[in-house]
């Protein structure tokens, strides 16, 4: 990474990051999620509108923020779900989406509209769980039966595409991609052994236990070290680092054990309090508005395909366990995507296999899903949200387990 932080640009980004939740708080019935305001704020202060900030000025922090997005998404996933009904249905739904995506992109490739067959097909199967977490948690959609199925569906829509992208589309060789997966697996084993050593007692156990809070914050610093090392593996935006951050989050959830509530509250404070908002503002600044405006029909086509290919299978897969309203919400939530689309288009641009207009249209469609679909899901859940507010406040940042 060869970018330097520009204080003036960082001030503009910090203003947007603070203004977004304040606006949501001042207008409680505003149907627009905070993430949308961060993206729009990034567009406004970016080089294509007001020119107050540039993506390059904050890219280092944005890369860490992207890592946090996937780390927190991985931390939210409980692998035991995939042995339960919610996980099994999520896996079935994703593979149905994959089959539909391959069929659709095959037709598009035959017409010459799509050049990069595999990246576009995988793009249609993704779910932006990391992007959705702040929205779902703020609106109380992670509680109860619906929350369990949404988390499992979102986990499948992020885990399987990330694995497929790392193996088949990574910037390194397929062997290197598989090696990186093995390295993360080894990391999980080492963390498991470290946890056993710490729990067995001794001086190290005492140091870690007493240093979890106040000024030492050992567990949080260890997590930050892990995340920064993963980000440092990439010269810039690098998919393998994203994969590592996601899987590291899964490993950390298991490793934390009884300390999980304390650690996750600290990760929320550092991630959602600073790095994650910077990433979303950065994403807004980095949007190529001219290319998106030049291919509006492609953008709308990809948007419709995301809803149809990734979302609509939920209507059948979750029949009998979720009501029609909840299945419709699942359609809207699972079809929402963005970070992986950015990664896919970056890979396509580097390799020269993706048409520039398709890259821009995919990112534009992803932004449109974030702007529209979660808002519709929240509107459908409005009676439930009002009931929660009437009952009283819940734990900030609470997760459904």
Description:
One of its GO terms (molecular function) is antiporter activity. Belongs to the monovalent cation:proton antiporter 2 (CPA2) transporter (TC 2.A.37) family. Pfam families: Na_H_Exchanger. Keywords: Antiport, Ion transport, Membrane, Transmembrane, Transmembrane helix, Transport. The chain has 19 helices and no strands. The protein is mainly alpha-helical. The two termini are 37 Å apart. Helix 3 packs across helix 12. It has one domain (7-141, 154-391): Na+/H+ antiporter like fold, CATH 1.20.1530.20. The chain is 75% helix and 0% strand.
Distance between the termini: 37 Å
Mean pLDDT: 75
Number of domains: 1
Q: What oligomerization state is this entry in? A: single chain
Helix-strand layout with pairing:
Layout: H1 7-26, H2 34-45, H3 59-76, H4 85-110, H5 117-123, H6 129-138, H7 144-168, H8 174-199, H9 202-210, H10 218-232, H11 239-256, H12 260-286, H13 289-294, H14 296-311, H15 313-317, H16 324-334, H17 339-351, H18 356-380, H19 382-391
Helix pairs in contact: 1-2, 1-12, 2-12, 3-6, 3-10, 3-11, 3-12, 4-5, 4-7, 4-14, 5-7, 7-8, 7-11, 7-16, 8-11, 10-11, 14-18, 16-18, 17-18
Keywords: Antiport, Ion transport, Membrane, Transmembrane, Transmembrane helix, Transport
Domain Cation/H+ exchanger transmembrane: 16-375
Subcellular location: Membrane
């Amino acid at each position: 990474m060869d970018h330097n932080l520009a204080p003036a640009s960082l001030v503009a980004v910090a203003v947007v990051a603070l203004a977004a939740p304040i606006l949501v708080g001042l207008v409680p019935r505003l149907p627009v999620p905070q993430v949308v305001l961060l993206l729009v704020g990034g567009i406004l202060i970016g080089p294509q509108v007001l020119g107050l900030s540039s993506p390059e000025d904050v890219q280092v922090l944005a890369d860490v923020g992207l890592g946090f997005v996937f780390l927190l998404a991985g931390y939210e996933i409980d692998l035991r779900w995939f042995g339960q009904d919610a996980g099994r249905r999520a896996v079935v739904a994703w593979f149905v989406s994959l089959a539909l995506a391959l069929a659709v992109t095959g037709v598009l490739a035959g017409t010459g509209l799509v050049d990069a067959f595999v990246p576009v097909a995988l793009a249609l199967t993704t779910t932006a769980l990391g992007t959705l977490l702040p929205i779902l948690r703020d609106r109380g959609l992670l509680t109860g039966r619906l929350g369990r199925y949404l988390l499992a569906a979102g986990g499948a829509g992020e885990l399987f595409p990330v694995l497929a992208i790392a193996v088949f589309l990574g910037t390194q060789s397929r062997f290197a991609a598989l090696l990186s997966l093995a390295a993360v697996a080894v990391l999980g084993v080492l963390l498991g052994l470290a946890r056993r050593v710490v729990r067995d007692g001794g001086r190290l156990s005492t140091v870690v236990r007493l240093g979890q809070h106040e000024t030492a914050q050992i567990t949080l610093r260890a997590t930050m070290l892990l995340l920064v090392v993963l980000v440092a593996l990439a010269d810039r935006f690098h998919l393998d680092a994203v994969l590592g951050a996601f899987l590291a989050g899964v490993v950390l959830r298991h490793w934390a054990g009884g300390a999980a509530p304390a650690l996750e509250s600290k990760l929320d404070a550092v991630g959602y309090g600073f790095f994650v908002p910077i990433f979303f503002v950065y994403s807004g600044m980095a949007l190529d508005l001219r290319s998106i405006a030049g291919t509006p029909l492609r953008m709308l086509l990809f948007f419709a395909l995301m809803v149809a290919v990734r979302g609509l299978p939920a209507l059948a897969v979750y029949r009998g366990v979720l009501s029609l309203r909840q299945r419709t919400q699942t359609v809207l939530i699972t079809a929402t995507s963005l970070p992986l689309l950015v990664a896919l288009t970056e890979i396509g641009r580097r390799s020269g296999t993706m048409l520039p207009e398709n890259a821009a249209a995919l990112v534009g469609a992803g932004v449109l899903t974030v702007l529209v679909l979660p808002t519709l899901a929240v509107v459908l859940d409005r009676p439930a949200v009002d009931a929660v507010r009437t009952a009283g406040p819940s734990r900030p940042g609470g997760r459904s387990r």
